[in-house]
């Protein structure tokens, strides 16, 4: 279990809890206490409780009086809605990056390293590290468009996504295949191939309602 560094504890706790929600490590419908999660993370209750209250405000958890916080389940209908919106936003955004490849080129090595980190995490079965590197890769690319509204919307949609199938894929060794999709996406962007970038992103996002869904 990942433990937190002694700085920005609330933000670190929030980030890690979101990743555990997305992966299904924090089980839908289950109730968790701030004290229990704080013990796992090796910190005091306060930053974890603050993080969990933020998750309540974002609709990802709900407070249960005198018991703790329940993970809010995601219905199949909600999952499909999130997928549809992400298709509408992320595919043209990535294609736009290919059209403006000059803004990506100076950062090519960084994103290549992130793509490799995603594959490494998938191979080692570290789902939280996989999701963290995946977020850095996709959101880092989107941030190069310098459209804060777009980045915020997509980041929020990512927080609401649930990938309950990742554990099964990891255990069967199949997660590496989807992890390896990031390098070709980056290559298509860097060569300025808008059509290929869009096609690869569409195939990549299909996992949201396919094998990642569980």
From TrEMBL:
Instruction: Write one Pfam family the protein is assigned to.
Output: GntR
The record places domain HTH gntR-type at 7-74
> By its UniProt entry, which Gene3D superfamilies does this protein fall under?
GntR ligand-binding domain-like, Winged helix-like DNA-binding domain superfamily/Winged helix DNA-binding domain
Keywords carried by this UniProt record: DNA-binding, Transcription, Transcription regulation
GO MF terms here are: DNA binding; DNA-binding transcription factor activity
What name goes with this protein? GntR family transcriptional regulator
Species source reads Plantimonas leprariae
């Amino acid at each position: 279990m990942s433990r937190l560094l002694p700085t920005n504890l609330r933000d670190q706790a929030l980030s890690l809890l979101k990743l555990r929600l997305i992966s299904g490590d924090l089980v839908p419908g289950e109730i968790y206490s701030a004290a229990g999660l704080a013990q796992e993370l090796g910190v005091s209750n306060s930053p974890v409780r603050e993080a969990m209250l933020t998750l309540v405000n974002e609709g990802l958890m709900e407070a249960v009086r005198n018991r703790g916080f329940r993970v809010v389940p995601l219905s199949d209908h909600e999952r499909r809605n999130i997928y549809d919106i992400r298709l509408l936003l992320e595919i043209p955004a990535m294609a736009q990056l290919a059209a403006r490849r000059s803004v990506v080129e100076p950062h090519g090595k960084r994103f290549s390293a992130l793509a490799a980190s995603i594959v490494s995490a998938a191979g080692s079965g570290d789902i939280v590290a996989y999701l963290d590197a995946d977020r850095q890769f996709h959101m880092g690319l989107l941030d190069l468009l310098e459209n804060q509204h777009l980045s915020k919307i997509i980041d929020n949609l990512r927080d609401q996504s649930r990938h309950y199938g990742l554990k099964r894929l990891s255990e069967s060794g199949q997660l590496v295949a989807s992890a390896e999709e990031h390098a070709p996406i980056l290559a298509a962007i860097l060569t300025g191939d808008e059509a290929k970038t869009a096609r690869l992103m569409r195939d990549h996002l299909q996992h949201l309602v396919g094998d990642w869904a569980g």
